[in-house]
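Protein Record: Sequence and Backbone Structure Tokens
======================================================
Scope: a single protein chain, as residues and as a discrete description of its fold.
Tokens: labelled as protein backbone structure tokens, with as many entries as the chain has residues.
Position: the record begins directly beneath this header, with no further notes in between.
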Amino acid sequence: MAAGQKRNRPLLTQALGALDKFKYEVASELNINPEYKSGYWGNISARECGAVGGNMVRRMIAAAEQTLAQQAAGSATAAFRAALPVEPDAQRGATSAHNPSEIRPGQSQQAFGIK
């Protein structure tokens, strides 16, 4: 490919520095030949470069999946709460007959069917 015909442009130019730093972190964790630290990757084998790129992609996908799972859990909880009908007793501040610990002073347990 001739000079000036680079096709893999980043979507966010602000992320270039972070991606570059991420690349060097992954390379050091994988114990890649330390020659890359000079900034020149020409002496690094294709297998090692592929391992760095593959691990970067694997981690980015895991981070995206985790974010989606958290968003889905949050929206599912909100949707579940919105779909639940509000009980009339809860609107008035009354206690539930199912939980004896909610019995207020002055109320008898027998009123709730508790012996």
